[in-house]
Amino acid sequence: MQRIDLNSDIGESFGPWELGDDEALLRVITSANIACGMHAGDPGVMRRTVDAALAHGVAIGAHPGLPDLVGFGRRRMAITPQEAYDLVLYQVGALSAFVRTAGGQMQHVKPHGAFYNMAAKDAELADAIARAVCDISPELILFGLSGSELIAAGERAGLRTASEVFADRRYQPDGALAPRANGAGIIHDAEEVAQQVLRMMREGKVAAGDSTVEVKAETVCIHGDTPGAGDLARGLRERLEQEGVRVCALWTE
Description:
By secondary structure, this protein is α/β, with parallel strands linked by helices.
């Protein structure tokens, strides 16, 4: 039986401002990437999101981002490998405190937005992120874009890695995600989402314009801020299970 983890970025509200339907997603996903206060989230949101994830039996991961609340962590910043290391240590450490206090255990780390995309291509940044994760705990799983420098860095560091694919995003010929500009890079149709994921799992390929890109699908993401993310995630999980796929967290035996 094929198996895959279904993850989403949640806990991205801030103060009175709410983003996404975390409750709907937590009823469906198997792993949660929880914002750690730099690109989104705040201490109260982090605590409530951790509690909610544990209540739903969803595996918890830290989602560290660049320090850019206004840009939601999606704007590139010129940072050094040491700064990348420090950012990961600071944010994962903060979320870990909430997880431990709630009686839980953290499964993974997945960088957010521009931080994730930068590490996908920059080996030095990727190595710094992997080293920080390993120094926190070598038991943590490092999520990264399939075929990216981040996956390679995690393997060099001796970490377990999870090659990630995206259900609600289109791809470019170099394997990177298509830009969000004008919404062209985002997939909203439930059937297209399901077909893309099934092809990635069965064939190890995804369409990228007029060509295809080889991918390894170990965990699949639906972004929490994609409109209708809860319905897309529910529909995708139902379709995968109908096709005989076991949807479960990565640490599930």
